[in-house]
Amino acid sequence: MDDNKTASFSLDSRRAATTGRDDFERSWRTHVGDEFPLPRFSAATATDFRLRFRATRVRDVAITSVDGASAAQTADGPSHDADQVRLWLVHSGAWALGSKRNSVEHTVVAGRFLLRHAARMHHFALPPHTSAQCIVLPAAPFSLLLGGREVAGHADAAEVRLLVAHAGMVEEALPDLSPAGVQAARDTLVELATAVTHYGFDDVNTRLAPALAQAAKNLAEQRLADADLSPAMLARELNVSVRTLQRAFAAGGESVTAYIRERRLELARQALLASRLAVSEIAAHWQFADASHFSRAFKQRYGLTPTEYARKNT
After folding, report:
1. CA distance 49 to 68
2. Are residues 168 and 226 in the same domain?
3. Domain total for the chain?
4. Are residues 119 and 265 in the same domain?
5. Is 129 contained in some domain?
6. 245 and 105 part of one domain
7. What is the CATH number of the domain that holds 307?
8. Which one of 149, 172, 196 terminates a domain?
9. What spatial distance separates the first Cα and last Cα of the chain, rounded to whole Å?
């Protein structure tokens, strides 16, 4: 994939229905590229292709807007691999999605959004007079928190409004951006879309618990030597309440505090074997209150004091 490519185009075929589809496909391949595969359109759609369309590519992100006078539907045919995340946002009309043509799995109606991982191209159908946006993003930044779930909600959610506003500014400013500006614009799009994945985490939904707990563990691993590591800090970084974070860990039979203590003890144990640091230095590095507190916690976990453990294993 050419992740450095940036381009945009606009097309209005509402008065040129017979040639609009060809112009659209040609412009898409020229400006956006085959890294963002196009579906095959149904015969009826190809014949009556009346829409206003805008597409902007910002490296590995694509921002698309459609305002259709006619209906649009995909056709049967080979499905493209597309390991991407998509966010659909509908202003009017509806956007029906399915794994097979004529099988609707999810309909995004006006005033709603849907964000999901899409390993393959979805079939879709739009009734006449649908106005909508679709933002296509790389899958990797979302793999942990999104997992196998999808996120749906109101289009006026603060995170969604912020993402859409930023996308609009990027569309307008892209021709004038420096390479550093393009990178910053792309990174902000991904970061804001990542924030949308947190939508609903503060609801009581046990399906989200494993993903949230794993995200917190990954973040904690990076901060185990930091004095400010705490459930409150993790919750703040993940944009959820402390209570929600605690419930996510409880669903797996553990607590946030116990997890942090266990990981710090394990890394301290490794340090006892791999370095000549004093017990007090290891205790301080892994944020135990003092050597005595560290020794008590260590013995409770491993059955020996740190000194006894080091002597026995070195």
Report:
1. 8
2. no
3. 3
4. no
5. yes
6. no
7. 1.10.10.60
8. 196
9. 50
- What residue numbers bound the domain in which 216 lies? 206-254
Size of the chain, expressed as the number of residues it contains: 314
* Residue range 63-112, pLDDT digits in tens: 999 999 999 999 876 566 678 999 999 999 999 998 776 677 899 999 99
List pLDDT tens digits, range 196-255: 887 766 554 555 677 678 888 988 999 999 999 999 999 888 777 898 889 889 988 999
Residue with structure tokens 């390993």?
A: 119
294 in a structural domain = yes
Distances (CA, A) of 289 to 227, 296, 311: 10, 11, 23
Same domain? 237 vs 269: no
pTM more than 0.70: no
Instruction: Report the C-alpha gap between 115 and 194 in whole angstroms.
Output: 10
Beta carbons within 10 angstroms of residue 26's beta carbon = 12
Query: Do 168 and 225 have their domain in common?
Result: no
Cβ within 8 Å of residue 4, ≥6 positions away: 59
Candidates 225, 230, 220; CA nearest to 270 is 225
Q: Which amino acid is at 217?
A: K
